[in-house]
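Cross-posting from the modeling subforum.

Setting up a comparison between two proteins and wanted a second pair of eyes on the formatting. Protein 1 (sequence, then structure tokens):
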Amino acid sequence: MESACQSFEMLLSAYADAEVSPRERAQVEMHLAACAGCRARLEDLKALSAAVSGHLDVQADQADFSRFADEVFKRIGPEAPGLLERARIWWSEILAYHRTAVISSLATAAVTVAIAVPLVWRLASQNASQINPQVVLHQLRLENPALQPVVMDMGDGRTLIMLVDQSGSGAGDAVPQQLDTTPPTGGDL
């Protein structure tokens, strides 16, 4: 019987802690029914386990865990991750949970830019040619030589004519002049 007890000796501790398979459990119980020495050994193991558990419970109750988390975090890493590391983590989480939305948004933005940039460029160039008036100077005979005409061709068939006082005396001193009101001919304004 002694050799059989040696083979079950290792299983007794696992049996006491209910950590054996159903097959092993049946074998240990069959051996315990026939062996008083192993039954006594099992009772000793159960008593030892209860004593150790009780001792650990008392120590755990006496321990002060109020600053435990603070001490652990102090030892783990006193520094917060840098800006680039946080951005990398943020981007990886975004891609992990919202990959489809991000890809579709980027594709939509790319298509929008591909369509909008040429349209805006074309509209801007068309409007620039219409808005930018050309300054055309023509000789007009005025009685006051300090007044100079400035003729602006607006590009849409309209023309703006302004008189600029070159004397430096200001607009209040200018005397209104009579302009030649005959229509221009042959491309002259």
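Protein 2 (same layout):
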Amino acid sequence: MTALLIVFSGLFGAAGVAGAAMAAHGGDTQFVAIAAAIALVHAPALLALAALRPVMPRLAATGGILIVAGTLLFSGDLAARVVWGERMFANAAPLGGMILIGAWLLTAIAGIVVGIARHRSTPQAR
């Protein structure tokens, strides 16, 4: 799973830079720029979750899969509109956005869970 998160991080990073370059040189810049931004923001997030897998294996993996799915739907739908002139399917981008919001909330919950677990395992000073 860690390798998969790293692979998608690299793919999203590359797609984000390519999309940003495309937006800078013309075309339907609004959709391309947004798709690029979403991909670029989530590429390092996937690297961070891959690095955190030893600390929170299930939560990092689940959050990573949600980020991959959400980014593919959100950015993919916007890119499809530019490349093919139509959506992937109805509401693909909003669905991807909701999945990304859920992934970030899961990441926040994971931080709380790890913090509580560390607090409980730390000996209390008397």
